[in-house]
Amino acid sequence: MPVKELVVISGKGGTGKTSLAASLVELAREDGPVVAVDADVDASNLALILDAEPGEVNDFVGGELAFVTPELCTGCGECVAACRFAAVSMTDGKALVDPLACEGCRVCRAVCPAGAVTMRHSVTGSWRVDEGEGFHLIHAELGIARDNSGKLVSRVRREARDVAERTGAKLIIIDGPPGIGCPVHAAITGTDLALIVTEPSPSGMHDLERALDTCAHFDRPAVVVVNKADLAPALTEETADLCRRRGAFLLGLLPFDRRVPGLLARGLSLVHLDTFRGLLVELWETLRGRLNG
Q: Where does the source fall among the domains of life (predicted)?
């Protein structure tokens, strides 16, 4: 049986996406080894809930940056004039590249008559593989003021497939980033099913539509869970109507519970609350059927 990939997204932050993803990992590992991926590389937090032994930290090279060798620079200023990102300036008669502004386009190297500009690999983040009971967790951290988060998401997903092959895991659960931007695109592509977690609020419905549009663009099937559904029953019904109009299967409703923040603060998932255990087991069984169907 090929490895199945489930991605959990939300369209917006704060809907309970990571809490649900962690709960699904705990339930899924009862069927066999699972690989969990935290694709929110800008603010990774799945490791706060899933108890795993930290693994070795690996550097992530996200691209190249220009570097000027001062001894070779003649101070002609050609690179300063050519750079469209204002990343090169003159300091004491020598060109100096701002690594936070440089986009690695190589124009400065192309126009430098003295050959003083070289390109160097840029370490823009890190990733690691942690090991827990019945699962492995791959997560990453993008460096401060660094970009290319989509590339880092793709890197941890490749590692997840390698880990699944080594361990015999048949399921990869991806905790996707919030929103619908580049890292979400990298998290969705090639998955077997997208689970969208939303909430009964105007912004929740708006962002649910955006998430559904994103899944449709990448031709990925999507199912929906409404979290905190009992806080606004009328909006929950509107959300259900939206799912029917868009042809998205409404997987289930989860209630609001004031004990959840305290539970998460202790590093425990929702399956440890009696309010959620039965509902989550039912959700997982339906999800498993759709993944393997």
A: Bacteria
